[in-house]
Amino acid sequence: MYDVEKIRSDFPILSREVNGKPLTYLDNGASAQKPQVVIDAITRAYAEEYSNVHRGLHYLSNLATEKYETVRGTIARFLNAGHEDHIVMNSGTTEGINTIAYGWAMPNLEAGDEIILSVMEHHANIVPWHFLRERQGVVIKWVETAPDGSLDPQSVIDAITPKTKLIAITQCSNVLGTIVDVKSICHAARDRGVATLVDGSQGAVHMPVDVQDIGCDFYAITGHKLYGPSSSGAIYVRPERMAEMRPFMGGGDMIKEVSRDRVIYNDAPMKFEAGTPGIVQMIGLGVALDYMMGVGMDKIAAHEADLKSYASERLSGLNWVSVQGQAPEKAAIFSFTLEGAAHAHDISTILDKKGVAVRAGQHCAGPLMEHLGVAATCRASFGMYNTRAEVDVLVDALELAHELFA
Amino acid sequence: MASAAFEEIVEDFEFLEDWEDRYRHVIEQGKAMAPLDDALKVPATKVDGCASQVWLHPTIENGVFHFDGESDAMIVRGLIAVLRALYNGLSVAEVLQVDARAEMGRLGLNEHLSAQRSNGLTAMVQRIRETAAAAA
Questions:
Q1: What's the complex ipTM?
Q2: Rounded CA gap, A354 and A351, in Å?
């Protein structure tokens, strides 16, 4: 039994009003709200447990270090990473993918080497690869989605050539909701000696993740979408790949010894965590992941699958709404446009007046918008605390927008 | 300081009780506005900082300010129509005296002039003021 009302009561912000209407928060794809346990953990960390980590030998430093380092193990459990040393903690997926681009790809790829991306990648999984294209002559190869928004894993595998060094691909599109069969891609890539990076920014929010089963080399998560604090996150790195990485950022904490003419780096994963980290953010993320695992990732996935079915059914009943992406395997993320001249921002403005928070724009996915041939869409993205009743609120608000802009 | 055309809109708005009707009225104003000539939709007339596309083409003749504009978003297009009523026909000196936020507040539309809004109304007003200031 999934008690969504109990879950809702764990998130204080969900009981507030917006523009005089109860908040209907459907912008989870951009960032999710935080449960009270996370908020309490942040307060407690600053009020009672705070000091820098890995530095002092005093009581609070040891306490903060212990709290912080425990999170590494929590993330390893959340991703079934096998060992906590395979987790590099960071500020989120953007930092994670940049760490891989600078730390692994730049030293290991040469001019003419190829990186395969799908056309539905987020800019965070595009721009770091453009750096390699611009600076090292690495070639980016794009794999298109099918008209229904699905991505045939075979089309990715078929794009592999002897020059391919990396496949960097999302597990779940932030625009279309398409869930990608990353396991098939990663296993085929591994057989061919090609490294794989899975962008789990959306995927890890909506389904149980097992990086060993997926068989990827890198898997990136971002804490603020996982009901945790902003500026928290991590990457899983397969140990063989970790050994091929050089440090990306230099500073404190990632070294053992520094002298005038020599640096001895710390062991991995610390080698990839320069400077004072987001101590409290990471402690909060640990609590958020425990919260999700406590509810059960399979139960969250089942609840959201029900929301997806219901929202699909309700939206398909509106013949003036055009939903982008109808892949059979899809998360509860709906990008849509309205028939007629209304711009995505017009629609989101009206929805906002009804208390419904959605995102409007290009969703940091320029190549996909180009592929779809739309300037902008509205996106309603559901999370673990959303309800069927909120789908109805969305549909009512859309009917008003349709009437206003007709 | 506001034009007679704007005062007419203020009067119309006094009869509109809920926000739906006010928005409907703004959208109607936008629909009634003549589209901007495509030849005038160039980088020089594009207003940056807008989430939707916005163009603004000001002209000053004998010290009298006038602008035409357009947006691909219907609410913003309507807001442009309201701004045209507010500013067009004023002298450049008068343009600089207009408190746009206060005037839009009389229509209950000042939320569109808050700094966080990315619909570009703030950027449009700034462009209008800059143009007038350069000619003053």
A1: 0.86
A2: 5
